[in-house]
Amino acid sequence: MSAPALEAVDVTRAYEMEGVRVQALKGVSLTIGQGEYAAILGPSGSGKSTLMHLLGALDRPSTGVLRVGGRDVASLDDSALAELRNEHIGFVFQSFHLLARTTAVDNVGMPLMYRGVPRAERRARAVAALERVGLGHRLGHRPNQMSGGEQQRVAIARALVGEPQLVLADEPTGNLDTRTGEEVMDLLERLNAEQGVAVVLVTHEPDVAERARRQIYIRDGLIERDTAA
Amino acid sequence: MRTSELLGVAFEALRANRTRSLLTMLGVIIGVWAVVVLVAIGGGARDMVEGEIEGLGSNIIFVVPGEFGLDSGGPTVSRLDLEDTRELRRIAGEDAVTAGLNSSEVVRAGSREVFASLLGADENVANVYVRPLARGRHLTEIDVETRRRVAVLGSQAAERLFGEVDPLGRQVTIGGGRFRVVGVFEEVGQTFGQSRDNEVQVPLTTAQRMLGVTRVDYMAVRAADADAVEPLQARLVAALESRHQGERYSAVTQTQLLGTIGTVLGALTGVLAAIAAISLLVGGVGVSNIMLVSVRERTREIGLRKAVGARQRDVLAQFLVEAVLLTSTGGVLGIALGVGTALAIAALSPVPAVIAWWSPVLAFTVSAAVGVFFGVMPARRAGRLDPVVALRSD
Predict the structure, then answer these.
(1) Alpha-carbon gap: B308 to the closest alpha carbon of chain A (Å)
(2) Are B242 and B263 in a shared domain?
(3) Do B307 and B358 belong to one domain?
(4) pLDDT tens-digit readout, B288-326
(5) Which chain B residue has the Cα nearest residue A97?
(6) pTM exceeds 0.95, yes or no
(7) Domain count, chain A
């Protein structure tokens, strides 16, 4: 098997908040393999959001080594980090983060725009991604013309369109009712199983986390328990 | 990202906020509009004056007493007389010099009267100036030598005095004396805002006797061609100044006259356009302000774009293109409005509008540059946003 999708070795992250030093992560080591399906659990303030930002290459650790797609993020500048995210990570957010007044196809195709993919190819790949999440009939719809579940599926299609190694889903069911939430989880599981894309869920809901094959519990900036360990 | 992609994204963003975009553009629109109109009208006014002066005839030198210039002080009492005219004729040619004596007189015909500008002129007046006749004849040498009481009427004076009746051969009364109408000029329009169609020409000698003077006010000399103008000017002035020791004379060409008027009109246009350009700057500040608001409003969008792979320069370019699209669209609308207004003014008033090719080009370039200048700061701010912070904002 090739390099793991994510690899963190004794990662810490500290912030200056109004002059006060906050140690959000105190030394986290974990590895997410190719095609893995894991959930990161923890109460709010546990440092799981900070960990998610680091794993998504949106941020750099204060100390320790973090490798995303085999590359050490500490050695990358902002542009290279953006390219790394574009290539290796797909994001799914609690509040969908779709562009309003923009069709599903254009929302999904956006990551490819930053990769320099020409318009026609972008559209074709966006349509294919939307069909994979069961939204082949919603191509020209705008976010406000779709239900919450549909919007989250558009977001999942956007996360997948660039064929990343890893999808990072931050509370993906947090804004959905139970049934739609389960549908979204089913979809993520299916994509993980069928396409081999690693999925990391970040959640505080044990019900959601239990569906993953591996659970990583975070508390006070440290890994409290990792079912894979 | 490709430029066409950037333009598409920027266009969508501006269209999403149509009213705000239009209001933001308004500052630029008004600025460009004002500049285009003022430059067009300024250029038109200059062309009009130049056209009027050129309409007098080509290569004409005006010989007047005193110094010519914007700072020449008050008017000078003329010491020129018919002897001087004869002297200048020896230099420039017999029929190339015409002398003039100006006055304003009430001219009557029956019960009608007009207040006309009276010009004492000689037989060369039609050789030096371009002044076509509608009817009859010009003044002749005999008219001048024998101090005949004949008059040639401007078209407007003729119309007011005689209406539909043919004035040829009829009598008019000028300053108590009776004159016979021998000619009527064609309509020529205005010079310096004064209608030359209200002019009445009588023989110079007749006018001198009527006014009790021996002077002439000025002489107009036509040079053979453009190259002959400059040497002739010097010779005319030298001849007059040697005849009248201690006096100063000026020989002014149309070009010099035009230059002086052009300088005045140019300065005036420049000042007005500069004032208008200030509103363009104020418009730019408005664009900057709205772009800052827009960056703040769209923080989450920026965060998302960065999360999915937009680099700092992609986001910067997006907002910069948006600002430039805003101001250059404003520029185009301003140019269209300005050209329209200038054409309307040209149609409704005697001032023609001249839309120089460079004026819209410059206006467009400047408005685009305003976009770059005032868009850079908000765009940099957008580009530098930390995606973690941007995604979290609500």
Answers:
(1) 5
(2) no
(3) yes
(4) 999 999 999 999 999 999 999 999 999 999 999 999 999
(5) B304
(6) no
(7) 1
Nearest partner of B115 among B193, B200, B212, B186, judged by Cα? B200
* pLDDT tens sequence across A48-97: 889 999 999 999 999 999 999 889 999 999 999 999 999 999 999 999 99
- Number of folded domains that form chain B: 2
How far are the Cα atoms of B4, B238, B261, B333, B366 from residue B356, in angstroms, in the given order? 31, 41, 19, 17, 16
Is residue A95 within 8 Å of A143, Cβ to Cβ? no
Q: CA-nearest residue of chain B to A113?
A: B1
Which residues, 6 or more positions from A92, have their beta carbon under 8 angstroms from its beta carbon? Answer: A152, A155, A156, A159, A167, A168, A169, A170, A172, A188
Same domain, B296 and B347: yes
Among candidates B12, B303, B312 on the partner chain, residue whose Cβ is nearest the Cβ of A78? B312
B20: helix, strand or coil: helix
Residue A154, domain CATH: 3.40.50.300
3-state secondary structure of B110: coil
Tell me which residue range forms the domain holding A191: 35-60+83-226
The last residue of one of the domains, among B206, B227, B247, is B247
Residues of B with CB under 8 A from a CB of A: 1-2, 5, 12, 16, 300-301, 303-314, 387-388, 391
Tell me the residue ranges of DSSP E strands in B189-230.
Answer: 190-191, 194-195, 199-203, 218-222
Residues B375 and B321 in one domain: yes
Residue B152: both structure tokens together = 């040639």
Q: Averaged over B344-363, what is the pLDDT?
A: 85
pLDDT digits (tens, 9 = 90+) for B125-138: 888 888 889 989 99
For helices B312-348 and B254-297, give the axis angle rounded to 10 degrees: 140
